[in-house]
Specification:
Helix content is 49%, strand content 23%. It has 255 residues and is α+β, with helices and mostly antiparallel strands.
Amino acid sequence: MIDPKVLASIDAHAILRNLEDFTDLVPEASKIIGKKRVAIRFSIPELDKLTLKFDNGKCRAMRGDDIPCNMNLRFTSPEHFIAMIKGTKMPIPTSGFHHLGFLAKDFIKLTDLMTEYLKPDPERLKNDAEFRKVSTILTAYVACFALCEIANLDKVGKVTNNGIEDGVISFEIKDELYIHIVKKDGKLTCVKGAHPQPDAFMIFDTIDTACGVLNGTLDSFACIGAGKLTVKGHFNMIDNLNRLLNQVQFYSAEV
């Protein structure tokens, strides 16, 4: 069963957060922002606030209550935020009204363009190597950040989370992407970049292998058997990580 609170948290802290990486990877996205400077806060009941800071062609995503912003968008419930993501409801601005033009025009352009990469056209994904690379990296970021939201908030996810011992899991696409997931004090946290001493590893040999596994066209166990996906270290951590990734797919159907 879909929990609206969990889905809203994924929408905020896995998908919208991804604008940070999107603007780094896609020059067209950076051009949409241009020289604009604005920090937009998304205030959703029961969830950590998300602030997106746009500055000189880049976006930085920050989580927490005390981050300065130029514009605050209030939502009455997680369901209200989900509806905004789906394009059926509008947020409630409580400050920064002079930035409404950016929100209504450029921000929508950015999110629409990012959707093309996160929900790619199969033919373009197959035939455009650079597009496939960026789409796969963005999808991997979404998956790793989303699984942490599920582990920390979802009822079934919490049970899986309880089975993971404290430590670090490294998620890698060889020579392309490094993410590590930290279990500490009962919570999972996703961190960009490599970790010096992970306890467990999940390593894809190429972008193409990661793309196939993440979009469901390749079987992960077959990839392990073929040496295209390496898992090592604390098996229990990897096993439970895979359970959480399966839940990501469940929630992704609603995004």
